[in-house]
Write a structure and sequence with these properties.
CATH topology of the largest domain: pyruvate-formate lyase- activating enzyme
Strand content: 15-25%
Strand order of the largest sheet: 6-7-8-9
CATH architecture of the largest domain: Alpha-Beta Horseshoe
Number of domains: 3
Largest sheet: 4 strands, parallel
Order of helices and strands: EHEHEEEHHEHHEHEHEHHEHEHEEEHEH
CATH superfamily of the largest domain: pyruvate-formate lyase- activating enzyme
Length: 436
């Protein structure tokens, strides 16, 4: 097997690889004459006291290293990719897929759909299991892989085939049985599509999951997102659907006497209900799916209020620019902030790019921010980092449409742009206020 991507991106200082003078850009050919397909196999292979490492340097010269080390000591090599034999691509055509309802002209990576269980384990991405082969099962069992993040949507095999447009999706119940047998834990996601997998179909799905509560760590139910580029017409999640979904989730948790299923924040907003207290979300295991983010931010804000200055030395203005949904929350905060000489402004950024039905901050593009703030007098502008390109190190200052943070900065040289790294906490905003 050819190693496609076993390229060294970084060497940890003072590590074994650093002492051997292995460099960024070098390629690892083999470990003990074996060629790992991914970081999982690699981690297993280097858990040995004696390592034979074959390296191809950037100048194409081969060098072999005989290494003696502690059993579990890492070599200190960081790779460009977590998989070395290529990412498994998604073969589904899910009816709700957001990748398929994007316009042309975005970053190339935004059109790539992976369905690789290895990335699910390593990075927390969701997989449908429709491309599973026997060697995948064997590897998961051999390396005790757990947990995995699975896009479930429904346990009805016929409906799941219809929703994914893939006949392999019908195997879901057999797959759940096998995961239970090998004791692999699962985080499940259900994208709720009204009149398709909601109401009685959702009730069936939750009932079908009851025998598997020993391996399920969490179930997140999220509403489908509909951009203006979607050709097919879908019913939106409305107040009635949201209320019914919340009820079914509560019934399920009560029946199994365990807090496993959670409706995302958007359901509570649509149902005109207050988001639940922290105990509803447990360990906030699906926070990146919008499940519990409002509760965390609300609790953080309450603590921040107690630490906030009562008065600023000189009149100052802070502006929060965010999507429609979180903007409503920040407007609530605005009414509670009583700091003399502070103007706390909340700007709702309408999503003209994807359509105003898309109201989450992570899908706001740079141009929509620019259109919202231009011709306004802004001193301190705060935007959430979730709007920017995500990286292993955090984020790059690039929006989905290719605009950058510098495109915003140039609008006013006197404006201070602040990027809120932790979007679930008010602490960074508190620090800005108290620094004025």
């Amino acid at each position: 097997m050819k190693n496609h991507n076993m390229i060294v991106s970084e060497i940890i200082k003072n590590s074994i690889a650093d002492e051997l003078e292995i460099k960024s850009g070098d390629r690892i050919i083999s470990i003990n004459n074996q060629k790992p397909k991914d970081i999982i196999e690699y981690s297993y292979l280097i858990n040995d006291e004696n390592i034979n490492l074959l390296v191809e340097h950037k100048n194409k010269e081969l060098e072999e290293y005989e290494i003696e080390k502690d059993f579990d000591e890492d070599l200190g090599i960081v790779y460009e990719s977590a998989v070395f034999d290529g990412v498994k691509r998604c073969a589904n055509h899910c009816i709700f897929c957001f990748v398929d309802q994007q316009p042309e002209g975005l970053r190339e990576s935004l059109y790539v759909k992976d369905d690789d269980w290895r990335l699910s384990y390593i990075q927390g991405t969701y997989v449908t299991l429709t491309n599973f082969k026997e060697d995948d099962w064997e590897k998961i069992e051999k390396y005790h892989i757990s947990p995995l993040f699975v896009s479930l949507h429904t346990t009805n095999p016929y409906l799941r085939v219809k929703m994914t447009n893939n006949p392999n999706a019908s195997l879901i119940m057999e797959q759940l049985k096998r995961f239970k047998k090998i004791k692999t834990k699962l985080h499940l996601q259900i994208v709720l599509c009204p009149d398709i997998n909601d109401d009685m179909e959702l009730k069936r799905t939750l009932n079908d999951l009851k025998p598997y509560k020993s391996i399920i760590k969490s179930i997140a139910i999220v509403p489908l997102g509909i951009s203006k580029y979607r050709k097919e017409k879908f019913k939106k999640v409305d107040e009635k659907v949201a209320i019914r979904t919340i009820e079914l989730v509560d019934e399920f948790n009560k029946d199994i006497k365990k807090q496993l299923a959670m409706a995302s924040d958007e359901f509570f907003i649509l149902a005109k209900k207050e988001v639940p207290e922290k105990k509803y979300y447990g360990e906030f295991l699906q926070i990146e799916d919008g499940v519990g983010s409002i509760r965390l931010l609300k609790d953080s804000f309450k603590k921040s209020l107690k630490k906030m200055k009562k008065k600023l030395k000189t009149p100052s203005k802070i502006t929060i620019a965010t999507a429609s949904s979180p903007a409503k929350l920040f407007l609530e905060f605005k009414n509670e902030i009583k700091v003399e000489n502070l103007e706390f402004e909340v700007l709702e950024v309408k999503n003209k790019f994807f359509g105003e039905d898309i109201n989450v901050a992570g899908l706001i593009v740079g141009q929509d921010i620019i259109d919202t703030i231009k011709n306004k007098k802004i001193e301190h502008l705060i935007i959430p980092s979730v709007m920017l390109k995500k990286t292993a190190e955090g984020y790059e200052e690039i929006f989905l449409d290719g605009k950058t943070a510098d495109d915003i900065r140039v609008l006013d040289k006197n404006m201070h742009l602040h990027i809120q790294k932790d979007i679930y906490s008010f602490d960074e905003i508190l620090n800005i206020i108290n620094s004025l």
